[in-house]
Amino acid sequence: MTEADLLTKVYYAFGLFVLGGLDLGTPTGGPLFGRILLWAAYFAAPIWTASAVFEAILNALRPPVWRVKSIKNKIVIIGSGELAIGFLNRIKAAGNTHRVIVIVDKSQHPHLDALRSYRRVRVFVISGDQMHRLRRYPLHKAHRFLLLSERDDINFEVASLLLAQDPELGSKIVYHVSNLRFLRVLQDTAIVRKCTTFNQYEMAATQLARERLMRRFKATDYRDTVVLAGFGRFGQSILEQLEHHASGAFSRVAIIDLKAEQRALIADEEVVTERKYTRYTYEGDVDDPEIWQRLFTEVVIGEQEPVFVITTGNDETNLRCAIWLRKQFPGAMIISRTLAPSYFAESVCAEHDVVSVNTAALAQASIPHAWYRQARE
After folding, report:
1. In the CATH hierarchy, which fold is given to the domain comprising 202-364?
2. Could you tell me which of 12, 144, 241, 375 has the fewest CB atoms within 10 Å of its CB?
3. Per residue in 15-58, pLDDT tens?
4. 152-189 as b/e, with b when 16 or more CB fall inside 10 Å?
5. Which residues are registered as beta bridge partners of 197?
6. Residue 260 has pLDDT above 70, yes or no
7. What distance lies between CA 163 and its chain's CA centroid?
8. Other CB atoms within 10 Å distance of the CB of residue 271
């Protein structure tokens, strides 16, 4: 080692550091610089090892959310489903992903690969009980909290936690509620009054009514007949939007659903004005030909062809039904819904002059810009 060059000395010093140089004795001769390197290696090795062990223990004890160094001017998203992906798409289009922190609950089977595919978006996976660690941060410095979990209880809990920490945070909190009946019961509570709430099916229905249905009503010189095949949350939201924004533009509404009577009564809870149309309910399967024959006899009368909105929870059923209806009514407006974007459904619908829509895209298109606009430094 006496005649070796500097790089050789550094190489051997680091080699001894990795392999544990104490087993080879202490440096007693040679150049001063070489002895200093060896002594540094001897002392640094145990310190480095101990620090690595300590860090591993600390990581096991502390929740990952502690690693969020700062939330100043950040958009904090809680959630990992299709709704969160939709918001990220809008934020990405606005060029604002560097300001996004996504916190997901590992018990919700998050779409981690999809979330982490967004450049500069920071994703943290935690367990549900660790959400309360958020209160350790200066929450008032965040630009926006978007609570987009697929579970209402998580969104309500986090919103309540944030308000308990700082009641002034309400204007920064936007959260999703899937159960509209429950949300309406809570209208007079602080958790709803102080924050901004929304429902993705309601947003999607508003977009569909504005883009398609109201244009159709304006284009016809008669009051239309509307057939809703499938009357779940999306179908109910469509009818509600039509009642609010197109009342008087249609004369008859027919509902086909396995629970048509019950769900129609639920929809009646929100009717605050006199109904200006006649409603028909057909309880049964959309695939049942007998139900359609009854509907054609009792509702679809005259020369005016109706508007069909097929919104069951089965994409194949919707597509099959839409194509079959096109053969029966060449001039009718037919809308077929898919739960997620589908190139297959779009291509088949285009061939049969059927409007293909999906709730994810409709909801994404109707997200207000104010919810994710650029925050000032």
Report:
1. Rossmann fold (3.40.50)
2. 375
3. 555 554 445 555 666 777 777 776 676 656 655 665 665 565 55
4. bebbbbbbeebbebeeebbebbbbbbbebeebeeeeee
5. 175
6. yes
7. 22
8. 11
